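Team,

Forwarding the record for the chain on the shared tracking sheet. I've put the sequence and predicted structure together so nobody has to dig through attachments.
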Amino acid sequence: MENEQTSDRKLSFKDFASYEKNPSLGKKLKSIGIGDIEIDGGGLSIVDEDDGSIYKHFRVIGKKSKTVLDRKQFTKVYNDSFPHIGELSNSGVKMLVYIWGILTPDSDVFFIDVADAMKKCGYSKVTSIYTGLIDLLGRKLIYRSVGSHKYFVNVEMFFNGSRKNLEPLQRLQDKLDGKITD
């Protein structure tokens, strides 16, 4: 089978196919769908036609129309984080990827379920989890919180969602909109 390593030989670079066009764009992306944009009392909601989920609610003046939605979970990784990520140990990389997978959209807080992390990272010892966390903490990719297994994302390095939705930035927007005078 193409690109499958056998026990007799290692794969070389030339064993992998090359393409004229990106093959991942040639198939239907399952996470892409159509959603309605609806205005309700001066607000705008993006509603998924498949399951009725409301993705965002905005205060705007506009009209009813359709939009393309990407439902696939993602995490933005900012360029400032690249040097820090490049220096991570194997444990640090595994824990960072684990964290990216558990982030809640538009939240800077996450919780580590040690048993789940051990399973998903392929570790048999809890010390490997903490070795990775220490690496991430030391490079200021994450921060410890008061409380057990609770951490904060360094939103200057990576984030799942729009940083504009974080409380300090939302308060700034509310101030600009005249909602608060503080």
